[in-house]
Amino acid sequence: MTHDQEEALTMSDRLAVMANGRVEQLGSPREVYERPSTTFVADFLGVSNLMRAQSSGSTSIEVGEVRLTVSEPLQKAGVVRVAIRPERVRIEPRAASGENRVPVRIERFVYLGSTTQVFVTLPGGDRLQALVANDEDVDEYDVGQEVVAYLPPDALRVLADEEATP
Predict the structure, then answer these.
(1) Counting Cβ atoms within 10 Å, is residue 109 exposed (0-12), middle (13-18) or buried (19+)?
(2) Type and span of the H or E element at 108
(3) Using CB atoms within 10 A as the burial measure, which of 40, 72, 146, 162 is most buried?
(4) pLDDT for 130-145, tens place per residue?
(5) Which residues constitute the domain of residue 141?
(6) pTM, whole model, 2 decimals?
């Protein structure tokens, strides 16, 4: 490997996301994508579902009337934003039960080749997007059908709500 190739590898393993002249987050591309530190970063890199939620300062949040568990202890109580990437949302049959399974209604499907975007609505009106591989059973569902969206605790990223009034 030449010196130039080594330098290119070294320079490409870190990513800085900036907004208004300041660094929002610095890290590896995977870390910044999977664990955004702000709503700007979550929305800037790829598609992210962003929902407003209420935090009690423990390991659970409430999105509307739905209580969700998160994998990391929360730093503060109050209004927060919750981010989850579409590829981490799983669509399951209505009978599925357990932690972080939310009843949703399918709004529409967008076929993308190897995947399908499934747009769903939560009971409180928030919309989520799931990205489902086409080898899964997405064909068994219809628009308007009530199903369950599974939001894994380790996929939920709780962020400060920059728009909330203090």
Answers:
(1) middle
(2) strand 101-111
(3) 40
(4) 999 887 777 788 999 9
(5) 90-150
(6) 0.81
